[in-house]
Amino acid sequence: MRFLVVGVGAIGGAYLAFLSKAGHEAFGLVKKGRKLDRIRVSGIWGEFEIPVRTIDDVNGLPWKPDLIIISVKSYDTEKALEQVKPVVGENTFLMNAQNGYGNYEKSAELFGEDRVILARVIFGSRVVSAGEIEITVCADDVVIGNPAGLIDENFLKNLAEVFTKSGIPTRYDREVYKYLWDKIIYNCALNPLGALLEANYGMLAQNPHTREIMDRIIDEVFEVAEKAGIESFWKSSEEYKKVFYERLIPPTSAHYPSMLADIKKGKTEIDALNGAIWKLGRKHGIDTPTNELITKLVKAKEEFNRTGLK
Amino acid sequence: MRFLVVGVGAIGGAYLAFLSKAGHEAFGLVKKGRKLDRIRVSGIWGEFEIPVRTIDDVNGLPWKPDLIIISVKSYDTEKALEQVKPVVGENTFLMNAQNGYGNYEKSAELFGEDRVILARVIFGSRVVSAGEIEITVCADDVVIGNPAGLIDENFLKNLAEVFTKSGIPTRYDREVYKYLWDKIIYNCALNPLGALLEANYGMLAQNPHTREIMDRIIDEVFEVAEKAGIESFWKSSEEYKKVFYERLIPPTSAHYPSMLADIKKGKTEIDALNGAIWKLGRKHGIDTPTNELITKLVKAKEEFNRTGLK
Fold first, then answer.
1. Among residues A291, A265, A290, A289, which one has the least CA distance to residue A276?
2. Which of B140, B174, B208 marks a domain boundary?
3. CB-count exposure of residue A173 (10 Å: 0-12, 13-18, 19+)
4. For the stretch B253-262, what's the b/e string if a residue is b when 16 or more beta carbons lie within 10 angstroms of its beta carbon?
5. Number of structural domains found in chain A
């Protein structure tokens, strides 16, 4: 199979490295002047260094890819989709391997629901330095699927097999959207508070004030999801909160959200998390004062850090 | 006149130093082991060093004071009022020279509305080191008065004269409560956001996100005040906001709130500001989601810094 990986950061870098190592034809699309000719991988999935091919212009691609993996940050999704348009052929599929709400939706709107695969990525990876990534943790397989149910299941199962054999454990599940949504709820509750207060997940869950705020965030997410017709694995916000505090938080209590590093750099994925909930709520006539205020605080702090006014 | 100054910090230290220098009988009540025998003053009102008398137990006071000046932080008001009970004589008045809502109210409840003077202090002072304070800025006279109108105006005018002659410009105004409330609105809008985002007043007013948050805070404060029967100088929230952004912010745009230093030390006066608005709103059946969430965020950050969990 021929792959184009758009955005060679922590996640995209992992895809490019593992696919290349397994002998697949793969290119990475990088920003101008950011070309790499090898990636060094360390961490829980082993250590290796592998030559890779990257381009900073899709016109440099020698073929139309079978699969385009979108792994840019959410705020760059629209730009990435525009960029790859010229190389999307009749048989090209896209796969959003990103966080948050809105990435799959944007891809599906532009290329059709029957061409877009959604991946719920829940392994952790970080860029140690240019061309060097570390796989830090793996909570579960990557889950892939087509939310609209319009892509042949055997094709998706084979694709999962290709990734798994390449070294990225992956399975197909028709309920992929629920998996993604699960991660969205979790990230909406923890990421912005961790970033604003420089607190880890355990601190946020233990402190009565942040716990109340997270409860509100989760309640609002559930209210919006219900109104928007988005299904989740949970019967109610209360059921989710029980699992959240009792099962999900404890093993990750020492973890700080990556949004903390992002906010310091002046740009976060808040618009694909709490900002998306706020926007979706507005669309459906639902007030989300907590998600709204949290979004504004994160955006303000991003801007203060970005402009260096501080 | 005989004065007892309770809390010899930035403001109490100024009162103790200037009253002592003017030859008044004055004692400072300090925390155990924090006695001082002199205060050094610098800044806009001149430089001097003056011997002072401090006690860490009211039983050490040789007389019943004519005026007890309460200048502890708002979260210590109740404790301070308990402490001074034994030395409150028939002719003793109290004066709250503090920030925020609730200090005068607590004093009046305990000692009677006819015994408590309210002071709106709007000069800036900071503790440089133990026994050393700097007067940094003076926006206006201290305004003193009795909100209930139950204390003789001539007595209050004379008292203002005593302070002014001692070096702390002070005037009597029967509308002192409106002056205090003005400062409360201003501090509710700016202090917690400045502390949470490490931003100065100009940044907060320029950034569209923090500006929207401040607008909401101010709207909620006005709604609560109206319902609670608290009068202000302003016809409406809109009128105040215009003055706030156009006249009040510009000359102080480079200023960071002292709550920023306080939050780092793990204790702020949030309960006498946004927390008091939230509480007063609850009492009157009014939702104040913005003040509530901001209060919780500040309290969480305080606790994270205090416990050193971070």
1. A291
2. B174
3. middle
4. eebbbbbbeb
5. 2
pLDDT value for B309: 46
Q: State yes or no: pLDDT of B302 exceeds 60.
A: yes
At B238, the amino acid letter reads: E
Contacts of A207 in chain B (CB under 8 A): 300, 303-304
Higher pLDDT, B251 or A93: A93
Domain boundary residue, one of B174, B203, B220: B174
Q: How many CB atoms lie within 10 A of CB A20?
A: 22
Same-domain check for residues B33 and B67: yes
pLDDT one-digit tens code per residue, B138-174: 989 999 999 999 999 999 999 999 999 999 999 999 9
| Percent of chain B topping pLDDT 90 | 96
Q: Are residues A72 and A126 in the same domain?
A: yes
Minimal Cβ distance to A197: which of B199, B213, B301: B301
**B198 interaction partners in chain A (CB closer than 8 Å):** 304, 310
Q: In this complex, how many residue pairs, one in chain A and one in chain B, have their CB atoms less than 8 Å apart?
A: 76
pLDDT tens-place string over residues B125-136:
999 999 999 999
Tell me the HSE value of B207 on the side-chain side, using a 13 A CA sphere.
29
Residues 6+ away with beta carbon under 8 Å from B158: none
Print the domain residue range for A237: 178-307
Interface test with B, best of A190, A206, A207, A305 (most B CBs within 10 A): A207
Q: Are residues A114 and A225 in the same domain?
A: no
Residue B307 pLDDT level (bands cut at 50, 70, 90) = confident
B296 to chain A, any CB pair closer than 8 A? The answer is yes
Where chain A has pLDDT below 50, the residues are 309-310
Residue from the list B293, B300, B301 with its beta carbon closest to the beta carbon of A293 = B293
| B308 has pLDDT over 90 | no
Q: What is the pLDDT at residue A75?
A: 97
What ipTM was reported for this prediction?
0.92
**How does pLDDT run across A234-278, given as a tens digit for each residue?**
999 999 999 999 999 998 899 999 999 999 999 999 999 999 999
The residue of chain B nearest to residue A200, with distances taken between CA atoms, is B310
Give the count of beta carbons closer than 10 Å to the beta carbon of residue B40. Answer: 17
CATH, residue B25? 3.40.50.720
What phi, psi does B188 have (nearest 5°)?
Answer: -60, -40
The per-residue pLDDT of chain B, averaged, comes to 96
Same domain, B125 and B256: no
Taking the alpha carbons at both ends of chain B, their separation in whole angstroms is 49
Please report, in angstroms and rounded to a whole number, the separation of the first and last CA atoms in chain A: 49
Return the axis-axis angle of helices B289-307 and B258-265, rounded to nearest 10°.
Answer: 50
Interatomic CA distance for residues A218 and B247, integer angstroms: 40
